[in-house]
Write a structure and sequence with these properties.
This protein has three domains: 84 residues, no CATH class; 242 residues, Lambda Exonuclease, Chain A (Alpha-Beta Complex), CATH 3.90.320; 74 residues, no CATH class. It contains 18 helices and twelve strands. The strands form three sheets. Strands 3, 4, 5, 6, 7, 8, 9 and 12 form an eight-stranded mixed sheet that branches. Strands 1-2 form a two-stranded antiparallel ribbon. Strands 10-11 form a two-stranded antiparallel sheet. The structure holds iron/sulfur cluster (SF4). The site of iron/sulfur cluster has 12 residues, from α8 and α18.
Length: 417
C-alpha cells in the first residue's frame, strides 16, 4: 500500500515533518515529479486492465489525456474506435439522459461542465449560512406556502407556521445555536411575509391556479422528457420545474411556468440566444408537448435583499408574456384599472398592450422554445465530440468555484456575448 502526499509549489512545514517521520530502509523518501507520480499511479499493465474493464461504461478521452502520460492516450483512442462511439457520451449522458442545468453549465463554460458533470468535482462543504443556503431556505418556504393552496389564509399566520416547521429541520436547527446565523434566520422570516404576500396577490388577482409544484419532467412522468436528436444518438433532457400554474380559458388550458431564482432574475433576449438562460423555454416546450398552451414564462426572485435600494415591485414575475389581452386580463384582473401590472411586466395604453421585449406573440414564443431545443442538441453533440474547452461566457469566471482548478484567474478567453 502507498500513501502519496502532494503540494503545489513549496511544501508546508507539516509536510516536511510527515516526510521526515518515515524512511524507506533508512533512506529518505523520494519526492516524485508530476510525471513520476503519474507512472506510480498508472502502470502500463494496470491502465490497460482498467481501460478494458471500463470499456463498456467508457470514460472521456480528453479527461484521460489530461491526467495520463501521453503514451497511454492511444489506448483510449483504440477503445473508442472499437466501440465506434465517442466515449464522452457515456461519461456525461449516463442512461442516455442529461439535465437542463447541465447544458446551461456547458453554455456558460465547457470546461466547467466537464469538471462538474464529468469529473463530478465539488467544493468542500463548510459549516456556514451561505447565500446558497439562504436561497434553499426561501425556496423551501415558498414551496410549502404554494402547496398549502390556501391564498385566503392570513399570510402572517402561515409565515409563522412554515418558519417554525423549517427551523425544526436538522439542516436549519443547527443555525439557531449561533447568534449571528440565528439573527439571519429571523430576518428571513420577515422576508417570507413579503414573498408570500406577492404570491397571494398572483393568485387572488387572477384565475390561475397552481398545477404542478416541483414538477419533474422525465420519462414516465406526467410531463415527458424532451428528446434531443443528435445524428444516431438520442439523449433525453429532464429537469424540475419549480411551479406551473394553469388557467382554463375557452376550454383550453394555458400555463405560466415559474422558476424561483435566488440569483439574477432578469431575463434578456441575448440570454436565450447564447444558451445562458434556456430553462424556461425548455420547460414550456415540455408542457406544450404534454398538451398545454403557453401564457408566459417567468423568473420569480426568491432572495433576501441586503440592499436598502429596494423597489416596490421587487418580487414581480420577470420574463415573457403572450400578447393576448383576453388572457392577460384573466392573469391580472387589476390591470384594466391600473394599466401597469403588479404581477408581471406588462403595461397597457389606450386599452392595448404596450410593445416591449416582455411581450411576444404565441408563435414567437413557440419558435423560441424550438430554438432552445436546437441549442441543446448542438451542445449535446459538442459534448459527445469531447469539447471541454476553457471558453467561459463573460462574467462567469468571477463567481466560478473551479477557478482554482483551471487557473483562469485573468478570466482569459471570455466570450463577449
Ligand atoms: S473559472 Fe472560468 S474558465 Fe475556469 S472553469 Fe470556471 S468558468 Fe471555466
Amino acid at each position: 500500500m502507498s500513501l502519496f502526499l502532494s503540494y503545489t509549489d513549496n511544501p508546508a512545514s507539516f509536510f516536511t515533518d510527515i516526510k521526515n517521520s518515515f524512511t524507506d530502509n533508512s533512506k529518505t523518501l523520494p519526492v516524485l515529479t508530476n510525471l513520476d507520480f503519474q507512472k506510480e499511479l498508472y502502470t502500463h499493465g494496470g491502465i490497460i486492465r482498467h481501460l478494458v474493464k471500463v470499456k463498456g461504461s467508457k470514460r472521456e478521452t480528453k479527461a484521460f489525456d489530461f491526467i495520463l502520460p501521453d503514451k497511454f492516450s492511444h489506448i483510449f483512442k483504440n477503445i473508442e474506435k472499437a466501440n465506434d462511439k465517442p466515449v464522452s457520451g457515456a461519461m456525461f449522458f449516463k442512461n442516455g439522459t442529461t439535465s437542463v442545468s447541465a447544458l446551461e453549465t456547458y453554455f456558460s463554460c465547457p470546461y466547467k461542465h466537464f469538471l462538474r458533470y464529468g469529473l463530478k468535482a465539488t467544493e468542500r462543504e463548510v459549516a456556514e449560512f451561505a447565500p446558497i443556503d439562504i436561497g434553499r431556505f426561501l425556496h423551501l418556504a415558498v414551496k410549502m406556502y404554494v402547496e398549502n393552496n390556501n391564498f385566503d389564509a392570513d399570510v402572517k399566520v402561515l409565515k409563522d407556521t412554515i418558519f417554525k416547521t423549517l427551523i425544526k429541520l436538522p439542516e436549519y436547527k443547527k443555525y439557531l445555536a449561533d447568534p449571528f446565523t440565528k439573527l439571519m434566520l429571523f430576518k428571513l422570516k420577515n422576508e417570507l411575509e413579503k414573498i408570500f404576500e406577492t404570491i397571494k396577490n398572483q393568485f387572488k388577482c387572477s384565475i390561475f391556479k397552481p398545477l404542478f409544484i416541483e414538477a419533474k419532467f422525465d420519462s414516465g412522468y406526467k410531463i415527458e422528457a424532451v428528446e434531443l436528436k443528435i445524428s444516431n444518438v438520442s439523449v433525453k433532457l429532464h429537469g424540475i420545474i419549480d411551479r406551473v400554474d394553469v388557467m382554463n380559458v375557452g376550454g383550453q388550458n394555458f400555463v405560466r411556468v415559474i422558476d424561483y431564482k435566488s440569483g439574477n432574475a432578469k431575463f434578456l433576449n441575448s440570454d436565450l440566444q447564447f444558451g445562458k438562460k434556456i430553462q424556461l423555454f425548455i420547460y414550456m416546450h415540455a408542457l406544450i408537448k404534454s398538451g398545454y398552451r403557453p401564457f408566459g414564462l417567468y423568473y420569480f426572485p426568491v432572495k433576501f435583499k441586503f440592499s436598502k435600494d429596494e423597489t416596490e415591485n421587487e418580487y414581480k414575475l420577470t420574463g415573457q408574456t403572450v400578447d393576448n389581452l383576453e388572457l392577460i386580463n384573466c392573469a391580472d384582473e387589476n390591470l384594466k384599472c391600473e394599466n401597469i401590472s403588479k404581477i408581471f411586466e406588462v403595461k397597457l395604453k389606450d386599452g392595448k398592450t404596450v410593445k416591449s421585449n416582455k411581450i411576444v406573440s404565441e408563435e414567437e414564443l413557440l419558435k423560441k422554445c424550438e430554438y432552445s431545443v436546437n441549442l441543446c442538441e448542438r451542445a449535446a453533440k459538442e459534448i459527445i465530440d469531447g469539447n471541454i474547452d476553457i471558453s467561459p461566457q463573460r462574467g462567469v469566471c468571477e463567481y466560478c468555484e473551479y477557478v482554482c482548478v483551471c487557473k483562469n484567474y485573468g478570466f482569459l478567453g471570455e466570450r463577449q456575448v
